[in-house]
Design brief:
This protein is of the alpha+beta class and 140 residues long. It folds into two domains: 82 residues, F0F1 ATP synthase delta/epsilon subunit, N-terminal (ATP Synthase, domain 1), CATH 2.60.15; 47 residues, Single alpha-helices involved in coiled-coils or other helix-helix interfaces, CATH 1.20.5. The protein has two helices and eight strands, in the order E-E-E-E-E-E-E-E-H-H. A hairpin with a 2-residue loop joins strand 5 and strand 6. Helix 1 runs antiparallel to helix 2. The termini are far apart. It binds adenosine-5'-triphosphate. Adenosine-5'-triphosphate binds next to helix 1 and helix 2.
């Protein structure tokens, strides 16, 4: 079976770099599924889940928006931030969500609305990936 090289890169470094079978990314116009031999394209990403399948394995990451390019032999994701589901700090994301919601409801005069909304979307994307994908321990 053919595969395609996926590189997910942030300002901090390479988060993921492997040959994979399928990439499903949160494009600004909706979910984008990419298989090997996909037509070249470029698109913006929105905060959400990026899912990767490789053989029998699946990987789940939270992406905070960015940019995706499909080339004939590879997919390149330049992400504002990206965390694998197992790396997401839930308490930190809950706190970021709470802070953003508080600002948005209190509307202080110096509120940067776009920034508060973007922070909320990043936090919600992280929490949703954890909720959907993190394996629970038996009995919890
Ligand atoms: P916070 O307000 O908690 O910093 P943020 O959404 O403003 O959240 P970002 O600017 O998107 O944070 O990310 C900064 C760095 O921190 C990135 O490397 C990102 O991967 C990491 N990061 C942010 N939130 C989390 C989290 N909940 N769990 C793990 N890593 C996180």
């Amino acid at each position: 079976m053919s595969s395609i090289k996926l590189d997910i890169v942030t300002a901090e470094g390479v988060v993921f770099s492997e040959d994979v079978d399928v990439v499903v990314a949160p494009g600004v116009e909706g979910q984008l599924g990419i298989l090997p031999h996909h037509t070249p394209l470029m698109t913006m990403l929105q905060p959400g889940e990026l899912r990767v399948r490789k053989g029998g394995e699946e990987f789940f990451l939270a992406i905070s928006g960015g940019f995706l390019e499909v080339r004939p032999d590879r997919v390149i994701v330049l992400a504002d931030a990206a965390e694998r589901v197992e790396e997401i700090d839930v308490a930190r994301a809950e706190e970021a969500k709470r802070r953003a919601q508080e600002r948005l409801s209190q509307r202080p005069p110096d509120l940067d609305l776009a920034r508060a909304e973007a922070g909320l979307r990043r936090a919600l994307a992280r929490l949703e990936v954890v909720q959907r994908r993190r394996k629970r321990k038996p009995g919890t």
